[in-house]
Amino acid sequence: MKSKKILDTVIEKIIFCCGILAIVFVVLIFGFLLKESFSFFKDYGIINFVTGKLWYPTSAPPRFGILSLMAGSFFVTLGAAAVAIPLGVMAALYIAEVAPVSIRDFLKSGVELLAAIPSVVIGFIGMVTLVPLVRTVFDLPTGLTAFAGSIMLGFMALPTIVSISEDAIRAVPWNYKEGALALGATRWQTMYRIVLPAALPGIIAAVMLGLGRVIGETMAVMMITGNAAQIPAGIFEPVRTMTATIAAEMGETVKGSMHYRSLFSIGVILFMITFCINFIADLFLHRMKR
Amino acid sequence: MVDKIVATTLNCSYGKVHSIKQLNLTVFQNEILGIIGPANSGKTTFLRTINRLNDMLPGFSATGTLTIDGADIFAMDPEALRRKVGMVFALPLPLPMTVYDNVAYGPRRHGITDKKEIAEIVERALCASSLWEEVKDRLNESAMKLSGGQQQRLCIARTLAVEPDIILYDEPCSGLDPISTAKVEEAMVELKKKYTIVLVTNNVKQASRVSDRTAFFLMGELIEIDQTAKLFVSPKDKRTEDYITGRFG
To answer: Which CATH superfamily groups domain A71-289?
Structure first.
């Protein structure tokens, strides 16, 4: 009897530790990022860092302005959203509402399989197929542009958006649809006026999670966006994102140097952005459950 | 009496389940026809066949004819049919929007854009379902905040706003308290002056209270149909008698 009770407490403690570990990791990572970036902010100034347009970390004196990097991330994310949101939501609507059962299962697993493709593979495919195509079609000096990156990243965000939106659409009670149909609404009117609004919190959450993945994505953007640290004049110019900067430069910095710490500071900014996006997505997901 | 809905040798089935067998039934204009019967007797199937809501279900098929004002419903455009044939469901199902928008939903879908006209339709429909007095100050609140009985009358108003000829009630009071039930029934009796009503109910007493004629369904067959007063006092079929006296079902 007594040994059983001890076992109970021990298991309880172990489970507790496992549960708390996730939070501990987040706090530790954030703490580490903050520690490195704080000393950088003290030396360089957070205003200079965020509003500076020039990113020349190895010039003399070095310049660490990440405005162009933020603009790069912003452009690519915006472009990816323009690709992924309409495509994703409509695909979800088709899978949930229109497609016959046999096609539905096939499509859904297909879309989820898309999520399993490693990002380096997506980047590679984009590099050999999409990039030359963009260059010839739009007659550009190089195909490595924000535009090409947006399309590939849009595809990467699709599985998340389709899958979660589809769940949200299917969670709309069948009765709502029947109620609207019984009033003489057509199928499309029912979808547009009843099903979509009712599923909207879930769809917004899906979009947010999808975009969170896009902002944090590194490998594919590094391979296809051209990596020029400049504020782009348009979508057909090379850009460099915050993630690509960290990945590309971390290997060549001296540990503890200004450059090294500046990369951590980019990480902090990135972390804050993705944190906000996930937080908003979470809010909407909870609203959907209620 | 004018024939409104006429079913002739109507058979309905879901896949292999034969749920309505050789049904011949006429509903007259401006009457309330009550349909009673135990579970799986085909009464709801019949109702949902009239406005073709069953078409949506996989494996559903119907043979025989069903006409409204002499026109074959299976040849009609389903949306046009459903505009003519309103339906009130068992559970009150307000759409997730305001009280006003719920009632205005149907007319708006059918192309009415004039705000004044819609406001008039909404008020008329809410009055006809005897809900206006209770909600006239809450039109912009979410319909989800109304009580169950109010929600059900809102659904009736929503159906009326489309200005149908026929209203189908599918156990409209199964989730309501007695006072709300009385109000829904009152509204129903008031409405038959303008509309033709088919009422499916599990509550035998409700059928005896409100319907002009009553039909008894059992296992997909129409056992008996007669004036409500007659059917409840001297049923011709033994099974009808057993059911209404509560010996089974």
So the answer is: MetI-like (1.10.3720.10)
